[in-house]
Amino acid sequence: MLAALAPLPWLLHSDFWLNLAIMALYYGFLGQAWNLLGGYGGQFSFGHAAFFGTGAYASAVLQVKLGFDPWLAFALAGVLAGCVGAFVGALSFRYGLRGSYFALITLAFAEVLRIVANSVGFTGAGVGTLIPLKQGAYNFQFATKAGFYFVIFGLTALGLAMAWWLENSRFGARLSAVRENEDAARALGVDVFRVKLSAITLSAALTGLGGSFYAQYYLYVDPGIAYGPAVSVTALLVPIIGGLGTALGPLLGSFVLAAMSQLAQAVMGQAPGLNLILYGVILVLMIMFLPNGLFGLARISARRFLMGAR
Amino acid sequence: MLALRHVSKSFGGLRAVADVTLTIPEGGIVALIGPNGAGKTTLFNLITGFIAPDAGEIAFAGRDITGLPPHRLAALGLVRTFQIMQPFAHLSVRENIAIGAHLRIGNRRAALARAAEVAARTGMGDRLDRPAESLTVAGRKRLELARALATEPRLLLLDEVMAGLNPREIEEIVEIVRGIRAGGVTILLIEHVMQAVVSLAEHCHVLNNGALIAAGTPAAVAENPSVVEAYLGTGAAERILKAAARA
Predict the structure, then answer these.
(1) CATH classification of B2-246 is 3.40.50.300, yes or no?
(2) CB contact under 8 A, B88 and A181
(3) Which phi and psi (to 5°) does residue B187 adopt?
(4) What was the ipTM of the complex prediction?
(5) Does B137 touch chain A (CB under 8 A)?
(6) Which of A152, A208, B166, B173 is the most buried (most CB within 10 A)?
(7) How many domains are there within chain A?
């Protein structure tokens, strides 16, 4: 499926469609990063914007204010977001915050960071930070959309590789054990705190890379974009639609969501806030009727088909 | 193998475990019995690190383990099962057992292979790919046992692995437990099913209101007047003796 997506820039000759594909992969990647912690580990974060925004700001501020190389800033964005993830995780998991309490604490961290970014000088405060246009691959600013496409394609592959690793490693097995039952995992020798901390650090680092990609693609970051709730919501919506804790679920969910957004726009025009209403409706319907996502639906259909054949 | 010295634990005003001192010798099967609410499961929670004692010391294999967290104890070879079964509901039987196997085995494929071996030993070989949530009570009890066994414990604490099973299922579990002991694992079990206690345990400790009230072979303990009274109420032993004398 992924390999089929690789040559897309040569097939799509319109920037409109290529942009759509980039956005679908980009949201799929953010969803995958969330999925590593939320889907495989069962820790539902409502504040992945905290990591996304840190990555986006790290990328912009390091370049503009401190003169870092954009590619180095990209890597550091992942590291710094991972540090924020480790900090949030250490605090909330040390004190045993689970379920809705964990969701709330992550939401709170994202909001606090949004307010901080709005108030301090080095982020550009409310005005935001503009990355000066200086095109060139060495500068992580591509003349054509194809360049960005290949970067996000690479990140998607990285996300998939991580999911594959979780499904085939001791760490991943332990993470799913923690999701299913923490006490039982503990009794069988799993260091629950360490497993959850590693998972949130990994998830946050990848989300930070996504934030850095955003900053390079649009060359602008402000507190609302970076730390606002939109990213947090999309990051969890995408894997919930596609299938929690599945490797391909986020990608599937992202493409379905992109298609539906386009459809809604075509039917109802560019009404502001329309996409948010749509997200809300989809989320409610998914949780009511398809808690296992589209992949869950596929599995049920396959089983019915096999049973029917017997 | 395991030594408790003056271990106590209170919850608010309730003394759940009061000044318990006992030792479990290596290689045997020891039972811990007592009426409901006697503090047996609390004692298990203390030994396996799920709660910390208010006072006292616990030593395992000559080493002080008081206050160590459960995952460290599991790594040392001290592993428990749960009275209320705690399966990883959405994982298959094989994956459930592999979580235990991963304590000693890093490689995923090797752990899954080891899980299949352990499943065969515990009579679950035919259900490897079933999700744990689809198992019956008897199946879940076996799964608890299999997962714990897969960690290669030195001391296994079994919390009512036979409760709710029918006599035939009990007989099967008894055989499995014997097999585990034959493999060199020391076993401490909480059990209400006296048939199992009598046929398995060489030694038996009786807990009532958080304190040890008797110890000895299962047969001797069953005739101990204070044990009879703990189960049946004050004066019961005397009444039974009188009734026996009249008859």
Answers:
(1) yes
(2) yes
(3) -130, 130
(4) 0.90
(5) no
(6) A208
(7) 1
